[in-house]
Amino acid sequence: MKASFVTLGCKVNQYETQALKELFRAEGYEIVSENDPADVCVVNTCSVTNIADRKSRQAVRHLKKLNPDCIVVVTGCYAQTGKEAVRAMEEVDIVAGTNEKSSIPELVREYIEDQEKKFRVLEYEKLGCFDEMGIVEAMEGRTRAYIKIQEGCNRFCSYCIIPYARGNVRSRNEEDILKEAELLINCGYKELVLTGINTALYGSEEDGEPKLHILIDKISRIEGDYRIRLSSLEPTVINAEYIKKLFEFKKLCHHVHLSVQSGSDNVLKSMKRRYDMTEYRNIVKTIKDFDENYGITTDIIVGFPGEEEEDFNDSVRTVEDIDFCKVHVFKYSRRGGTPADKMKDQVAPQVKNARSEALIKASETSAERFINKNLGTSRSVLFEEYDRKKGTITGLADNYIRVYVKMDEKDAENAINSFGNVLLEQRFLDGIKGILL
Ligand code: SF4
Fold first, then answer.
1. Pocket test for ligand 1, best of 49, 124, 151, 160 (most atoms within 8 A of CB)
2. Are residue 13 and residue 100 in the same domain, yes or no?
3. 202 and 325, same structural domain?
4. Ligand 1 contact via 274 beta carbon (within 6 Å)
5. Which of 90, 222, 238, 303 makes an SS bond possible with 347, Cβ 3.0 to 4.6 Å?
6. Which helix (H) or strand (E) holds 409?
7. 326-348 pLDDT, tens per residue?
8. Is 140 helix (H, G, I), strand (E, B) or coil?
9. Range of the domain at 297
10. What pLDDT digit, counting tens, does each position of 370-422 carry?
11. Helix 309-321 vs helix 277-290: angle between axes, to the nearest 10 degrees?
12. What are phi and psi of 160, to 5 degrees?
């Protein structure tokens, strides 16, 4: 039997699809690409915006059109938040909610036996334990591997549907994480990306205190030539004191995705983000005091309900003051089922567009400042790809800068998927060109 998979959304979804592929392979399925004919088609959906919901439905219809006789399985966040709408789709045979991914092969077996539609979706309040999907042995590509360490979020930011899609905080069993990390390192992966719905909440179930530093310490003790990257850290959880705990780990990349969402305390308050800009800037200052070229990426929403021109200027000032490696700018998008969707003072689309353009400009200048500050310094780079035309090998520095090094093809073959210490010399394309030290 053949199975194909379509994944929408975040790194956690990508990880879960990889784990699902391994579960199906263990059942004897051949995994084929999403455009190839298949007997079972699984759509791992996203529900972060209304648009994501729509794209999820479109993916289902597209797959069924390609494979009229296949069994269609819908899982992921939209299967949780829009369960009745998904259930009502005639194309859909099996609906598996957030915590049911590991049971999908079994649901498919049952369906093949009795041809009866399957619907297994728990209310988000009842999403009890961590849905362990088994040890993932391989990822697309050979350089970077994601490891899911945590599920759920209990922050309830007013614009966010994720706590309703993923449920409360559940951490993965430490032993399973360490086993998976060791296996991936032994398979030759050079970068382990620790990911989750709110990674910083790892291990916080009992006392609310994050235990991520303990896990990083244990992973770092595994023998091997690799580095660790965090997919993100939430300032709704960590503070300047906590971030210091991460500085001692030599294998941890000097890069953090620290979503600020707005530079205005008024807007942060109505977003229910649990910190103000003084606290956020304090975390940034602590990081930059440790390594002035530590890479910080972030997200900013423009046009949040009630955002005045002055609030928006606070966001612009934030990217003018802080050298972000990259700023992802999002126009606020109403999400049914969230408190912000019901807020008055929704901002007009043309105002959102104008603010988005202005902030993207300011963010590009911020990123340019950050990159230029790295010129003349050296960083460790993990080489990933060779471009024959340019005659350059490229990879990401630990602080998330894209780096290019001139190299002949023979040397590059040996250098791919290995680390090199590079002197960063000149701006080049979206990054920096340097020489291997
Ligand atoms: S921290 Fe806030 S934005 Fe992030 S997943 Fe949780 S509720 Fe959503």
1. 160
2. yes
3. yes
4. no
5. 303
6. helix 409-415
7. 999 999 999 999 999 999 999 99
8. coil
9. 144-370
10. 999 999 999 999 999 999 999 999 999 999 999 999 999 999 999 999 999 99
11. 10
12. -110, 130
